[in-house]
């Protein structure tokens, strides 16, 4: 079955620490990959996306992600987190031919301590 | 200007009632979606409409009925509400491209609480 798995459910970091959140998806052909962020009480916002081309994608707010096809992974990174990065982070995938259905991972709660 | 809007933002109601949530997008997109976010924050698609045509219908109780009067609106009607329906419901929209290379834009969500 098509699925997405996020390995870290709850991450606590101090400000200026580096961040890496894991995301793996099940094989299902051509994929489009996304990371969304949900700040407390707010709606989902797109951080970055991968459709094709350079597997290292840069998004907003200093985030980046690397698509490693052989590992079915799309990990999110940020070299130095800020308190304002405290939020819920969702990895999501659409599979080719799946009429745009976004399949989400379980989400990772990131808490950044000032 | 709000791209994807939902009303109401909060909805508290009793078991057995019927309620509707409305969604509107002003992005000119032709595909709209409903997602449910449960208490553990897990997001799952419920429905999708493309140009008023239902294209995704996940395993959702038939108490839930989406309606799309035009491609800018997608409403969700829920009959005979149950405690388990308590969740945050998100509407989203996207353009349609043959290679699926598009992103979805989400509304602010409607927090439904069934008592």
Give an overview in words.
The complex is a heterodimer of chains A (114) and B (115). Chain A is mainly β and 114 residues long. Chain A contains no helices and 12 strands. Helix content of chain A is 0%, strand content 53%. Chain B has 115 residues and is mainly β. In chain B, strand 7 (64-70) and strand 8 form a beta hairpin. Chain B is globular. The model of chain B has no long low-confidence stretch (mean pLDDT 91). Classes of the chains: A mainly beta (114), B mainly beta (115). Chains A and B meet through strand 5, strand 6, strand 10 and strand 11 of A and strand 4, strand 5, strand 9 and strand 10 of B.
Summary tags:
heterodimer; A: 114 residues; mainly beta; four-stranded antiparallel beta sheet; 0% helix; 53% strand; B: 115 residues; seven-stranded mixed beta sheet; 55% strand; globular
């Amino acid at each position: 079955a098509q699925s997405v798995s996020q390995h870290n459910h709850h991450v606590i970091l101090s400000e200026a620490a580096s961040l890496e959140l894991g995301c793996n998806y099940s094989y299902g052909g051509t994929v489009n990959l996304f990371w969304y962020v949900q700040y407390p009480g707010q709606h989902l916002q797109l951080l970055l996306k991968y459709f094709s081309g350079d597997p290292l994608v840069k998004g907003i707010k200093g985030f980046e992600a690397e698509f490693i096809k052989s590992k079915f992974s799309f990990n999110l990174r940020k070299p130095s987190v800020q308190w304002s990065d405290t939020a819920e982070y969702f990895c999501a995938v659409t599979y080719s031919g799946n009429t745009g259905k976004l399949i989400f991972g379980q989400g990772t709660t990131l808490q950044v301590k000032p | 200007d709000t791209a994807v809007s939902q009303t109401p933002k909060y909805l508290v109601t009793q078991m057995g009632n019927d309620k509707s949530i409305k969604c509107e997008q002003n992005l000119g997109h032709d595909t709209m979606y409903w997602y449910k976010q449960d208490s553990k924050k897990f997001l799952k698609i419920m429905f999708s409409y493309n140009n008023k045509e239902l294209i995704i219908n996940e395993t959702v109780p038939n108490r839930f009925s989406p309606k799309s009067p035009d491609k800018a609106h997608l409403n969700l009607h829920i009959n005979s509400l149950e405690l388990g329906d308590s969740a945050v419901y998100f509407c989203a929209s996207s353009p349609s491209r043959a290679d699926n290379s598009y992103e979805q834009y989400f509304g602010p969500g409607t927090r439904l609480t069934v008592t």
